[in-house]
Design goal:
mainly beta; 279 residues; Immunoglobulin-like; 3 domains
């Protein structure tokens, strides 16, 4: 017995769907064709196709973001006789993404006398970064300092004794990110940092109170101050190039508040955090 099929009808165009930065779904209607009718959809821009399928849609993927693509579709009946092409029109993939703002922005705090060094974590897809600086947290104008493809920038125009707020923007061929979270930084004026970890002995010795601290980078000497109350006058007790000092003038049974300042050729640091001690 010989079977003959009627001619297939040309598919009807339908709207595109499932559009992403790398895929476009072409859709068409069967136009009353039987369920077993086969269709052939082509992305004429890339030259790729669905192959013959009974589906009424095809996902064209592996596309470049922000590019336009034209589609067409045809049908065939059980005898393999094809219809003409039906244009589905054109559709663009979603726009390519600009990079996210950089993270982990860090500006040096008095580490250098000739610059503030700013570092950050790279943003995926970024090709360059612009560094901005402001002189206040709120309301301050963010001024662009420079651009780099690196994740480190040296601000050599910063003034000593001034705190700056640093922000970064990331850029690629598709746009620029928003501002990063700020981080503050400042130049060193050459003076040593405040000594840390000050500890005064609590009744350990009968003849003295021993005071120790962690060395400050660049310090050549330390001055030890003593007060008799938390808010009392700080009186200099002595100076040493060491990080240990024995206060032999302390009176037995009396609690003292000890502070340290570090000194070098550029000047003196501020007071350390106090620590109490007694003999």
């Amino acid at each position: 017995m010989f079977t003959k099929y009627t001619l297939a009808k040309s598919p009807g165009a339908a709207s595109f769907s499932n559009v992403t930065q790398s895929c476009i779904r072409g859709n068409w209607t069967a136009n009353s064709n039987p369920d077993w009718t086969e269709y052939f959809c082509e992305n004429t821009t890339t030259g790729t196709n669905s192959g013959w399928t009974t589906n009424t849609n095809w996902d064209s993927c592996g596309l470049v973001c922000g590019t336009s693509h034209s589609f067409r579709v045809k049908a065939r009946n059980g005898d393999g006789i094809e219809t003409g092409w039906t244009s589905l029109g054109s559709r663009s993939t979603l726009a390519c993404p600009h990079p996210e703002p950089p993270t982990n922005v860090q500006a040096s705090d008095g580490t250098y006398m000739d610059k503030v060094q700013v570092t950050w974590t790279a943003s995926s897809g970024a090709t360059s970064y612009t560094i901005y600086r402001a002189t206040s947290k709120r309301g301050g104008t963010k001024t662009a300092l420079g651009t780099t493809s690196d994740t480190t920038y040296d601000d050599t125009t910063a003034l000593a004794g001034k705190i700056y707020y640093y922000y970064i923007k990331a850029t690629n061929a598709y746009g620029t990110s928003g501002f990063s979270v700020y981080n503050t930084g400042y130049l060193s004026d050459g003076r040593p940092s405040v000594p840390t970890n000050v500890l005064a002995s609590d009744g350990t010795y009968m003849d003295r109170v021993q005071v120790t601290w962690t060395a400050s980078s660049g310090a050549t000497s330390y001055t030890i101050y003593r007060a008799t109350s938390k808010w009392g006058t700080k009186t200099a007790s002595g100076t040493t190039s060491d990080t240990t000092y024995d206060d032999i003038t302390a009176l037995a049974g009396k609690i003292y508040y000890y502070y340290i300042k570090a000194t070098n050729a550029y000047g003196m640091s501020g007071f350390s955090v106090y620590n109490t001690g007694y003999r």
